[in-house]
Amino acid sequence: MPTAVITGASRGIGLEFVRQYLADGWTIHAGARDPEGADQLAALACEHLHVHQLDVTNHDHVAAFAKSLAGEPVDLLINNAGMWLGEFEAYGRFTNEDWMEEFRVHVLGTMAMCEALKSNVASSDQKLIINISSGNGRLGWDENGTDYPYNTSKAALNMLTKGLSVELVGEGITVVAFTPGFVATDMSGPDADLTPQESIEGMKNVIAGLDSTRIGSFLRYNGESLPW
Amino acid sequence: MVKSVLITGAGRGIGLEFVRQYIDDGWRVHACCRQPGKADALKAVLIGRNGLVHGLDVTDAGSIQDLAQAIEDEPIDVLINNAGIMPDDRKADGSIDYEAWECALHTNVIAPFRVAEGLVDRVDAGDMRIIANISSLMGSIGDNRSGGDHIYRTSKTALNMVTVNLAEDLRARGITVLAFHPGWVRTDMGGPNAAVAPEDSVRGMREQIAAAGPDQSGGFTNYDGTPLAW
User: ipTM of this predicted complex?
Assistant: First the structure.
């Protein structure tokens, strides 16, 4: 059975990815910043689930994670770890450090994971890297509000996705970005219109059918292609 | 009424060329650079003319505040966020230079936002109410067919998002926010083989700025006005 690495796996979308791929019989390496406090993830414990302490902004964590997987093929790397500072009613109500932290988690952390696990992915059968982005990262969408740290970091993640997709195609690796939809999680709150089950089922179907025409693209959970 | 412009990163390259052309056109010019003591070319352009050199580190909140105070009685018709850096992706050992990445995101993304935020009242007091962010085609996701330069590319994509979001936030105040690709310009950054002369790039952007209004706000264009893909 295939192997997947999923970051930000303790709750929300990451947790649901773990749940569904485990149910399919996959081996999962799940990254969580605080494994001790990840009760829902712990509840999924089985021989196919390996939980690692992983803060993607911590280079020592990323290095240790990669070391523990040395030589093991990774069919699917899902860069899901994300954050959101919260609602801003007016621009400017955040510090430079807040903003930089969103860049670290969404962009630099994604790069760190891709660099660290590139050879694992390249040696697998499926060779897939999925970056969980957001519709808020769309430059041409006029309804994404003005949450500068979130919007800019997700736009930058989309650019990184495109750039990595070009660089890694030579190694047979497919890189795409997804927007999971407005999913009801701790991060999005109760107004969301999609359950995690629906969103992840959708993304899994699309992931299973990815072909070369979709390399470097930005996809909705249902497979619809989105403009940047 | 004499128009006024404030330009960051004015010590050399595209910024310096903006200073030259606006001063020649009779504008009042506020030219900002990190080290005025070393900006000999800039001083030579402004000597005896209607321009001032300001020391400004765009990554330093206190420095932006000092600048805002220094010009608190003056309207600014056009604010040009031009200061930017282009670091290499990798260190000598081949690893990604995450420190340089943060530095680029600070200088190329957060700083233009903070400068706009700090000087928005001055721009509001002007007649033209234009903020121009000097971006790059390398920030176009759709145009990225070669990969590489992740640091510079992601920073310019993020800057484009700042342009889009500022346009939205400042629309009600009648302020127009633009993003430009200056072309591949013969400067220290662009190198000697670049296709476009600084004079032509800046002349083109000045024409676009002069003609811009609310309908153009949030747009990303080439220096000659051609719309570019996100």
Answer: 0.97
